Structures are given as C-alpha cells and as structure tokens.
Amino acid sequence: MFKKILKLVGGVLLILIAVQTYNTLRYAPQKTAIAAIEMPAVNENDVANRLGEAIRMQTISTATDMGERGPQFQQFVDWLVTTYPNANAAMTRVMVGGLTPVYRWQGSDPALKPILLTAHYDVVPVAESGVDSWPHGPFSGAVAEGFVWGRGALDDKSAVVAIMEAIEDLSKSGFTPKRTVYLSFGHDEEIGGQDGAASAVAYFKDNNIRMAWSLDEGSMILKDVIGGLETPVASINVAEKGYVSLDIIARAEGGHSSLPPRDTAVSTLAKAVVNLQSAPVPGGLNGVSREFFEGLGPHFSLVKRVLFANMWLYRPVLEMVLSGSPATDAMMRTTKAPTMLVGSAKDNVLPQEAIATVNFRIHPRDSIQSVIDHTRKMIDNPAIEIKVRDGFGNEPSAVSDKDGAGFKALSTTFQQVFGDLIVVPGLTVAATDSVHYSQVSDDSYRINPFVFTGEDIKRLHGRNERISVEGMGQAVQFYSALIRNSAG
C-alpha cells in the first residue's frame, strides 16, 4: 500500500514538472514585425534651447493660488504662438479655463473620430532649502552637460514642447492629417486640473466632440528600473488609480494634561490608525495588474519565468514577493498612507478632537465607498468618525482597451523610434489630467516618450530635474511618427 502511494505521489510530481516545463517553454517573448519608417531630422540642440526658454517662465501652481495666476502663464501661452508659427497657422485655437489652450488640427476625413494629445505646462514649486544643491538654477533652463535643466524638464513642459515641435515640422513639410488631432495643454494639472483640463472637457462636451483615444502623461520608458530586466520597458498605462483622503476623527472631553484620563482623543486616534495600518487593502494579481506582470514575465530569467508561466500554481508566492516592494505592491492594490495629524494647539492641553488624515490611491477593482467600508472595518470603533476630506475624491478610471487601435499605434511607434522595447499595459498610481480627459475619450492612455532611469524618477518634483538633449530629440520624433501612424 505504501509503495502504491509513493508511486502515485511520484506520478503526480512528474506530471506537475512536465506541465510546468511545457508552460515555461511556451512562455516566450512574442516578436511582432514592426515596419520601419524614416525618422524626421530633428535639430535636438535647437529643441533643447527652446525647452530652456519654456522652463525660464515660472508657471508655478500651488494650492493657495487656485484662482490666481501670474503673468508668466499668459507669457507661456503667447510664447507657443510666436515660437511655432507654422503649427499655429495649421491649427485653430480656443482658450478655456482662462489659460489652457485647446488646438484643433482639422483632418480631411470627418468620418474618422479624432484623437487627443495632452500635456500640462504648470510646475510644482521648488523647496527653498534645496536650491543651492542644483548645479544649474531650478528655473535657469540651462543646456549643459547634455541635459536641459530646470523645473518642467520632466514634468511636463518637455511634452508640450515636443508635441508643438513635431506639429511645427509636420505642417512646414506640407503634411495634412486625415484624422482630426486635438491638443490640450493644461495650466493647473499640479492642483487637480479643475480649471484647465476640466474646462477643456466641458468644451468638448458642449461641441459634441468625442475622441477615439487620448494620450497623457502617467508613465515612461523604464530603463534599469525593474530588477531582472535589461531591456527597457514602455508601460502604456491603460488605467489610473482613484484618489481619496479620509479624516479619521476621535473626540474626548479635553482638559489639562496634568489630570489625563486613561484614554485621550490622541490615544484613541492612535489605536485607530494602528488598526487601519495592520493589514493592507486586499489585492493581488488580477485585471490590469496581472496583464502588466504577465507582459513582463517572458523576459525574466528562467526561474522567474517558471513562476509567471505557472501562475495557477505559484500565484500566492508571486503576490507575496511583489508586495515586498512599494513600487510593485502599489500595482496590485489600493494603497493607504497616513499623511497628516492634528491634535492640541498646546503641549499641556488635552485636545477635544484629534484628526489623522489618510490618503488612499484606489485600484480599479475598488471604489471610494469600498475604501470607506474597509476603513470602518479595520478601525472597528463606532465612536470614531470617518469622513472624506474636503468632500473630494476621484473614483479610479475605467480600464482602456489594450487591444485597441490607440494602444497598437502607440506600441508600434515606441518600437519604431526607440528600438528593442518591452511594451506592456500598465497602471498609473498617481493622478493626471486624464481623470478629466477620459470623460470624452473611448480609450485613454498614459505615457510620455522619455527614457527614465531610477535616478530620473527621483528628480520628478524633486531636486535637479533635467532631461537629456538626445531624449528631447527622440520625443519630437515620437510625436511626429505617432501622428503619421494614427492620423496620416
């Protein structure tokens, strides 16, 4: 009897090994022939110098200037007109939300749905304490050591400039699109886009304009960022996380700190926050998260390929490993981060109210309501009040079609311009203006055509923001090729 059991176990193991071997051998990168195209000649030094001019205009957005913009915003909008005369002659322009230009390049075939290319020209402030550490001033727009330096070089004036450079060259050459191309350059993306992108969307709705697809920032070409991959990865993000901050509020009698009760509002709040943080929001490898990692899987080493090729068996192991890194964990679930605390105004006064603010980035499988329900369940204290901070939140976006015409045009163009790439659908974990533009687009994609390393990612909203001169040239070629591929 024991020998029969051993034979049975051995047979099962052999079958498991055979199935895993077969799956792994079949789990190989799929190569698709990409038609080569002639790349337009780009004077990358001239492009870099014009980006430097754009950076020197300090179009800074802060939470306190929601209704006010300095004269440099209008200066930038005017600069687009004088710097790109052929593009402006080929297109019509309306201003929405005060300072957001919306361009239309009319196509010859009105039966074709238009496409929308977007970017924003406002930038975040620079911390005064770190200015001295910039080798070139944060608004110098210096072109030095092969880079353009300054706030907006990565986020996101570089995209505005690259798009306008491409259209300037295309229009000068006599190119006319068959499909109408719209552009929208937001002036307040860094504070939510409520005047800029939202007004552009209102304009499109009022004029019954619906896009086949739109393209915004939200990812990039990742080089030497994902461990175990030597080939750069173009993550064309097909969805965007939602956003909500919850105020967790504990109340008590208050009084003098010399006669404290067993529990104060602060200690009650502390227990609530600890309980909330004790377990992550449920998540895992499904939906867009699974598609992202399955797209990468065939390019890993043999051991990792075995795991991804046999996810039916190793999925719990993969999820455990991936959850160990903040970057990959954020791809798999709704994240939560306590960010603000408010208690007493004085050290010897017991507060009557203590508040913790927790920021959530909501995965497409979840919703604002499910986040609130999770928070209530984890805190498990009916005396604690939970409310949406400022009454504001964005639901996660819909998931766009990774097999649609827009995704295919982007994938083809990336490979034509940048060569050997791994192209995968991905998820934007931060917030972009696509939260607005997706309302008038059948599909919305999020990626900028710039090669980023781990060091470059740290520069976003940080010190020493810069982009390579060569990278700006490639970005112009990308937008030129994309327009020809999708609207030519």
Descriptive account of the structure:
With 488 residues, the chain is of the alpha/beta class. It has two domains: 44-221 and 432-487, Aminopeptidase (3-Layer(aba) Sandwich), CATH 3.40.630; 239-394, Alpha-Beta Plaits. It contains 16 helices and 19 strands. Strands 1-2-6-3-7-17 form a six-stranded mixed sheet. A hairpin with a 2-residue loop joins strand 4 and strand 5 (147-149). The longest helix is centred in the N-terminal third of the chain and has 25 residues, at 2-26. The N and C termini lie far apart (73 Å). 42% of the residues are buried.
Oligomer: single chain
Morphology: globular
Share of helical residues: 25-40%
Radius of gyration: 26 Å
Total number of helical segments?
16
Total domains: 2
- For the record, the CATH architecture of the largest domain stands as 3-Layer(aba) Sandwich
**Arrangement of strands in the largest sheet:** 1-2-6-3-7-17
> What profile does the largest beta sheet have?
6 strands, mixed
Low-confidence stretches: none
The H-level CATH homologous superfamily of the largest domain, spelled out, is Zn peptidases
Instruction: Quote the distance from N terminus to C terminus.
Output: 73 Å
CATH class of the largest domain: Alpha Beta
Strand content: 15-25%
Which secondary-structure class do the elements indicate?
alpha/beta
Q: Residue-averaged pLDDT, rounded?
A: 94
Could you tell me the CATH topology label of the largest domain: Aminopeptidase
Number of strands: 19
